[in-house]
Design a protein that fits this description.
- The chain is of the alpha/beta class.
- Helices cover about 55% and strands about 10% of the residues.
- The protein has 32 helices and 17 strands.
- The strands form 4 sheets. A 7-stranded parallel beta sheet has the order 11-12-10-13-14-9-17. Strands 3-2-6-7-1-8 form a 6-stranded parallel beta sheet, sandwiched between helices. Strands 4-5 form a two-stranded parallel ribbon.
- α18 packs across α19.
- The structure holds a DNA duplex.
- It comes from Aliidiomarina sedimenti.
- Keywords: ATP-binding, DNA replication, DNA-binding, Helicase, Hydrolase, Isomerase, Nucleotide-binding.
- Pfam families: UvrD-helicase, UvrD_C.
- This is ATP-dependent DNA helicase Rep.
DNA sequence: CGCAAATCCTTTTTT
DNA sequence: AGGATTTGCG
């Protein structure tokens, strides 16, 4: 397939900074991959001079794959395709000396951050979970805005003063633990490049051309990082769509697109408006919906794929029935139109909405895949093993220490831990160091002390072995899991043997990932530290996604759906309070919710069905939600509302029997 | 110190 | 309604 004129312009223009305003489905990934190929083939760039940055691991992986296909694996050697956070991690790792960091640092996820904040504030304030969440997000926002604790302290008012003090202490403790949080992965490199001209030049030479995908998602610190990396020469292409900016709560703002024009007056802007994904009717609805938002750049999607069928709105009696009807519709269509399960996506606002759909899919024996929902890494067994690995890499990681010091049971209880904690506090060292202080034996009971000793010895012994290259380190981890009798512990602590087996399977999966990363395959082998940090960034999750993309119905949040496309899309829970989410209604941030709806609509290639429930249980009580305002903003000629009242129940019955028959058929086929 | 019951709190989106 | 955390007992 040929590039259209706009696309070609975006690919071949390399004279200066370029902004590609790429509407949904306008082939932006193709433009990026073609551009990289163009740079390598026709311009004076080697693959290793080029970096492409995305926001999700999944996007990075997909892009890498597509470039490999276009350019060939060999020609791609040294090409950087990564998320912002991975790039940041890379820079930090190579500049630890300048940053004054010890090697072997840990990455804190926000649960770790919350645990640290809790420890910091517990004595003086009675903190609840929502306070901690607020604190984490405040600190995160300050970091994203590149404001140091001092700067915040100087200007904070009211409640913020307290948070600012906490911020300052939080930073100090992170440093003491030799730990970084996710935001540091952007902030540190940015500050580093800003303040060290020599380092900056080194990286500007290293990355001679920079491409940024999903540019509308950049926050202040990420944008500054981009600016510092491209420098005066400003050789870069950013691709974005202000209508798909759905991460303002993370500091990303559509206005960043406009900012670019101010900072680079010579900026060239190319608009991609031809859509290669959806039927015209779907685009019409999307365009009209998003017209309700103010715009920096005008943009109107069109396609030549035909007008298409009307969009539909389906009501369920309650959320259960909503799910049943969606599943019934899928079963019916698959039977009548010979569609594949994999052609369907069910998109929702919040992860909790997935439950009912999962249940209904299981009942009908329909294969499905849920993406996101932090499932794997939030499993207790994974967090346990990760904590062991983190402690191996960085013994000063108190969060990791606390998680596993008595897991499996070693007879080190709260009393002993309190003593160790006091000692650590008093000596201003980490808990693990405190365990090695002479005189600890006088504070603990004999058995507890003995247990602590052997724990310390275990970690040190394993860490030493894990530091050795290749096979040795893999064995070290295998032996560790054996030694602590984790499998036995799982069987002891799980409600059923089946559950324990399941959990052990997860552990083995994690183990497999780590071993794969430690061994050298095509790329160079990672150190354990690198592997652990990569896992903290959830880098393997996407890899797992790749493995089973069979014929399965896709379930995901609207956020997670960005960048994807499906022939048939259900947008479920189209209700006030849910799709404009209640909190966004309260904050008056309807525009972002509208963009979220826009993203959902533009995922659909052929058919789009909205569903909602007349009744929904929420916090134990039943509410009767209004249909989402966005449904009324659509051109009503193109939307077919399911008739209400009597006709509904008739149709419902028909659908139900169809579904039952289909389910029966399905069962017979299976067994 | 470890396990079971009782309470209470939840639901926005993610690197 | 369900899951997580905290309390109370053996």
């Amino acid at each position: 397939m040929q590039l259209n004129p706009r696309q070609r312009e975006a690919v071949t223009y390399i004279g200066g900074p370029l902004l590609v305003l790429a509407g949904a489905g306008s082939g932006k990934t193709r433009v990026i991959t073609e551009k990289i190929a163009h740079l390598v083939r026709h311009c004076d760039y080697r693959a290793k001079d080029i970096a492409a940055v995305t926001f999700t691991n999944k996007a990075a992986r997909e892009m890498k794959e597509r470039i490999h296909k276009t350019l060939g694996r060999q020609a791609c050697r040294g090409l950087r395709v990564s998320t912002f956070h991975t790039l940041g991690l890379d820079i930090i790792r190579r500049e630890t000396a300048t940053l004054g960091m010890k090697p072997g640092f840990s990455l804190f996820d926000d649960q770790d951050s919350m645990a640290l904040l809790k420890a910091l504030t517990d004595d003086e304030l009675d903190v609840d979970k929502s306070w901690l969440k607020l604190a984490v997000s405040k600190i995160s926002n300050w970091k994203n805005d590149m404001r140091s604790p001092d700067a915040v302290l100087a200007s904070a008012e009211g409640d913020d003063q307290l948070f600012a003090v906490v911020y300052e202490q939080y930073q100090r403790h992170l440093k003491a633990y030799n730990a970084l949080d996710f935001d540091d992965l952007i902030l540190l490199p940015t500050v580093l490049l800003r303040d060290h001209p020599a380092v900056r030049e080194r990286w500007q030479k290293r990355i001679r051309y920079l491409l940024v995908d999903e540019y509308q998602d950049t926050n202040t610190s990420q944008y500054q990082l981009v600016r510092l990396l491209v420098g005066e020469r400003a050789r870069f292409t950013v691709v974005g769509d202000d209508d798909q900016s759905i991460y303002s709560w993370r500091g990303a703002q559509p206005k960043n697109l406009a900012l670019l024009q101010d900072d680079f007056p010579q900026l060239r802007v190319v608009k991609l408006e031809q859509n290669y994904r959806s039927m015209e009717r779907i685009l019409k609805c999307a365009n009209i919906l998003i017209d309700n938002n103010p715009h920096v750049f005008e943009k109107r999607l069109f396609s030549d794929m035909g007008y298409g069928e009307p969009l539909r709105v389906i009501f369920g009696r309650n959320e259960e029935n909503e799910a049943e009807r969606v599943v019934a519709e899928i079963v019916r269509e698959r039977f009548l139109e010979k569609t594949r399960y994999g052609d369907y996506a069910i998109l929702y606002r919040g992860n909790h909405q997935a439950r009912g759909f999962e249940k209904s899919l299981i009942n009908n024996r329909i294969p499905y895949k849920m993406t996101g929902g932090q499932s794997f890494f939030s499993r207790a067994e994974i967090k346990d093993i990760m904590a062991y690995l983190r402690l191996l890499v960085n013994p000063d990681d108190d969060n990791a220490f606390l998680r596993i010091i008595n897991l499996p049971r070693r007879g080190i209880g709260p009393t002993s831990m309190e003593r160790i904690g006091e000692l650590a506090n008093q000596e201003r060292v980490s808990l693990f160091s405190a365990c090695q202080i002479h005189g600890l034996n006088t504070l603990l009971s004999a058995p507890a002390f003995h247990a602590v000793q052997s724990f310390v010895e275990l970690i040190q012994r394993t860490a030493r072995k894990a530091a050795e290259p290749g096979e040795q380190s893999v064995h070290a981890i295998r032996d560790l899991i054996k030694f602590i009798q984790y499998e036995e512990w799982l069987f002891e602590s799980s409600p059923s043997p089946a559950a324990a087996e399941m959990r052990m399977k997860n552990v083995n999966e994690l183990y497999r990932w780590v071993s794969d990363m430690l061994k050298d395959d095509d790329d160079e082998a990672l150190s354990l530290e690198q592997a652990v940090n990569k896992l903290m960034l959830r880098d393997m999750l996407s890899r797992q996604d790749e493995e089973d993309d069979g014929d399965q119905v896709q379930l995901m949040t609207l956020h997670a759906s960005k960048g994807l496309e499906f022939p048939y899309v259900f947008m479920v829970g189209m209700e006030e309070g849910l799709l404009p989410h209640q909190s966004s209604i309260d904050e008056g941030n309807i525009e972002e919710e509208r963009r979220l709806a826009y993203v959902g609509i533009t995922r659909a290639q052929q058919r789009l069905i909205f569903t909602l429930a007349r009744e929904r249980r929420q916090y134990g009580e039943t509410i009767r939600p209004e249909p989402s305002r966005f449904l009324f903003e659509l051109p009503q000629d193109d939307v077919k509302w399911e008739d209400s009242q009597t006709k509904v129940s008739h149709e419902e019955k028909q659908q139900r029997s169809a579904s039952n028959i289909a389910a029966l058929r399905n069962m017979l086929k299976k067994d």
